[in-house]
Specification:
The complex is a heterodimer of chains A (766) and B (239).
Chain A lengths: L1 H10 L1 H37 L6 H6 L1 H7 L13 E10 L2 E10 L18 E4 L1 H9 L12 E5 L12 E5 L2 H4 L6 E3 L23 H27 L3 H13 L4 H35 L17 H24 L1 E4 L2 E4 L12 H16 L5 H37 L3 H12 L1 H32 L6 H5 E5 L15 H9 L3 E8 L6 E6 L2 E6 L1 E4 H4 L7 E2 L5 E4 L15 E2 L14 E8 L2 H12 L9 E2 H7 L1 H38 L1 H9 L4 H39 L8 H19 L2 H7 L9
Parallel strand pairs in A: 2-5, 3-4, 14-16
Antiparallel strand pairs in A: 1-2, 1-6, 3-5, 7-8, 9-17, 9-18, 10-17, 11-12, 13-15
Chain B lengths: L5 E12 L2 E12 L3 E5 L6 H8 L7 E6 L2 E2 L5 H11 E4 L11 H11 L4 H8 L1 H5 L15 H13 L5 E5 L7 H18 L2 E5 L3 H4 L4 E6 L2 E7 H12 L1
Parallel strand pairs in B: 3-8, 3-9, 6-7, 7-8
Antiparallel strand pairs in B: 1-2, 1-4, 4-5, 9-10
Helix pairs in contact in B: 3-4, 3-6, 6-7
The chains are: A alpha+beta (766), B alpha/beta (239).
Amino acid sequence: MIRLGLRLALAGGREAVVRLVITAAAVGLGVMLLLSALAGINAVNAQNQRYAWISTSVEFVHPHAYAQATAGKPAVAPARDPMWFELNTGYVAGQVYGRVDVAATGPDGPRLPGVARVPGPGQYYASPALARLLRDLPANQLADRFPGQQVGTIGPAALPAPNTLMIIVGDPVATLAHQPGAAKVTSIETVPPSGCNGSDCVAGVGIGSDGIDLILSCVAAGLLFPVLIFIGTASRLSAARREQRFAAMRLAGATPRQVSVISAVESTLAATGGVAGGFGLFYLVRPAIATIPFTGAPFFTSDLSLSAADVAAVAVGVPVAAAIAALIALRRVQISPLGVTRRATPKPPGSWRVIPLLAGMAELAYFAVIGRPATVSGQIQAFLPGFLLLLAGLVVAGPWLTMVGARLLARRAQRPAALIAARRLADNPRAGFRAISGLIVALFVTSVAVGVITTMASYRTGPAATPQVRNTVVDDFSDPVSGNFVGVAVPGEMLARLQGVEGVQGVTLVHTNPLRTWFTVRAGVHFFTSQAGLASCAEVAHTPVMGRCAAGAEVASVPPAGMSPMLTHQSSSVWAAAAYPAARLAGLPVTAIEVATDGAAADNRVQTVLADFHSADGVPTTIAETNAYNSANQTLAMEQQLADVIILTSLPIAGCALAASVVSGLTERRRPFSLLRLAGTSLGVLRRVVAFESVLPLLVVAVVSLGVGFAGAALFLRAQLGYSLRAPGVGFYGIVAAGLVAALAIIAATLPVLKRVTGPEVARND
Amino acid sequence: MSAAVSAVEGRELFRSFGATPALRGASVTVAAGEMLAVMGPSGSGKSTLLHCLAGILVPDRGEVWFGGQRIDTLGEGARSALRRERFGFVFQFGQLVPELTAAENVALPLLLDGTHRRAALAEARPWFGRLGLDGLEDRRSGELSGGEAQRVALARGLVARPEVLFADEPTGSLDSVTGEHVMELLTNATREQGTTVILVTHEPRVAAYAHREVVVRDGLVGHLAAGRAAAQTAGRAEG
């Protein structure tokens, strides 16, 4: 019987082959997306693994915390000759770069990844992207920060991403050993940021375990689910035509069991072909997928790898699942020798289905009214069930909402296209909803994320990227280990160099404060007060982003770290006068230097000058750079990126699933549609029927899931943080619109099928 | 029946599908208000002839005239409009849209022409009484018997009061009693409206309802004697 099934599928005439090819192609597309999602997860982990070595010094700076956080992880054998190691960051042209200073103490030291050997004093290795910048920018904007000679390029093993800016600088042992941030290490870190918990075990690079969990759950909910739905829909393409043929076989004496076997063979064959094609397609598009900055940084193509388990699960799982789906589909219809009948009209979904959704909303609203629980675990117990109820509620209520909406439309429809589409959806809302149920999950998850991210970003980040903010460089001095401010002496020669840099408009030095006065700023509804530093009002007048002094003041109490991003929107702040003689300020140590410039090139030049100065304690950074690379904002940016990628991919995937169901629906109604066309109904009307049937649920679901997601986010923000939901930026709507356009384009691509399947030959009385 | 005014005329029609010729110079004239039966064995080209006369297919050669206008030279859009607005169709089976009720299926041509839904349904409902379908207005196609579905299709073909009704094996999937019933209804309804009917059938009993019969054989049209007499002759010949 299996051989007969194979023969029927492969040698059953043109129609059978076309059916097989279309189904296989759709399954192949789904498999490609599935493999991309799985490889994406592997790529995130592979990329994160390459952040491990950058955190090397942490183990040796916080040995106890590190040992606790990585308990159970395999330890690396220590090398005989230790190496001095220091990680710093720097900024150029608005981008962050990593600078690792190393000094070997002997020939048998730890081996650095990505380089042939540890660079000696006066030598450095640069990543390809940084090497390009070193070549392209004038020396006083970048190269002067790294005196010495480039002896090679850092290989991919040490670079999280192909565009990572990284430099490994060799120093004399005597110099590096005296840097406060340097550590004597006997091994290179191999535990990735996701492998240990707590701030004492990572250097603030890569993705921590929480972030990895977030990515995995978003990918699972936002991508895998819609892809699996699509593959399921695709594997049942042309089911109606197949069922008619099975009826003919029953007439010829085939038993129901034999028909089941033939059906399973056909589905498995198409799925196997699809799987093979899907693997091919995946390797074809892999380089393009690698450029998507899923984590905020692109991947190396080789990062998008598949484990043996992934390959086996897809290669075996998809055909097996297709065979099972075919058998289940056959059980829903009665194929008798006289034809095909549905076993029963599906029972309409009941209104009870809306209860979980309402319960989830009510639960979150309750906490929005009474406020959040006091403890973190209480908050998790309060909000997680609410969001899960909303998510499950949307999926459970979806068919009922589809039915209610379709019935309303059917009652009011005046045009045949809307009427036919609404009736079809109302007749079997579960089928109508199935094709887009993956989308509802993806859009809900992303709208909650985007709602929360946008609002938090709006409340928590200060500066808009005004030219003043972009072009002011701040170098504040703090101990890299303790985080306390350090007062350093700024030689007059240094100050003169800064003031002499082309494009510098003003330099303000923030000094330590023997008066112990305080400053106060308002951040939103909160007041922030802290011990102040002292600054000359004559200097403040030339660095406008710092605000201004009270009238008549010569010296003022200002924030000791210069202007942190949280405070920069206080540029209109008026700093209180401090009773300290201006002439004596120069004798006080400096905790921060603030330099106003006229543009990005000047920024780079100032940063290059400052990189020489007390580099152990400060990282000269523009306020915009600090803001962009602050860890909270980077997390927000990564989540935003994740949300964008999921929206941009889940909508087209839903479009594919809808397109597959459109083709199925057309095949089922081939004859009535053809005869309508012969009777003069224009193709436009039939196209509108198809469009209504697919576009209507797509748009309704998009609006409902986004609405519920934003409502959930609003209630959560109100309860947890007392924030009001802020509308996402134009970019979000642009991304949603782009995703919708892609989905609609995919659906539109099925319309030529309509013309072909409704040709006059269908009217023949066969 | 006077044949002085011709409603539809096909002149020297040729049409091939690939290398297979279906029509090889077929000519036929149908007078206004006439019911013409087109008979012939399977594969003789009778459905192709009907499709050419209705403007569904364009002949490779020859001319098709309707109401004094040549229609085979019209574009697809104009021919579609002609079919929608001035012709009606009844096919053998499977012509009802499964999502619509019987009444909505009958009203469909009016809805497609832009008539308001309520008005279209109001115009469709009397046909249920005329065709013995009372009480079936809200049923779906899956809830109708073959004969009922065919009568609904007939109502749909006539609801817009077409000038010509093209019927392609309208009783082909029905038993003989039901088929006769449908044909009687078709004959009465078209006679009341003065509709010209071109009926393709291979059943002499069905053809006997027509005023005149032609036979298509090998892509050419041959003429037979009128109506029932011809049917009886054919019946004897077959028996």
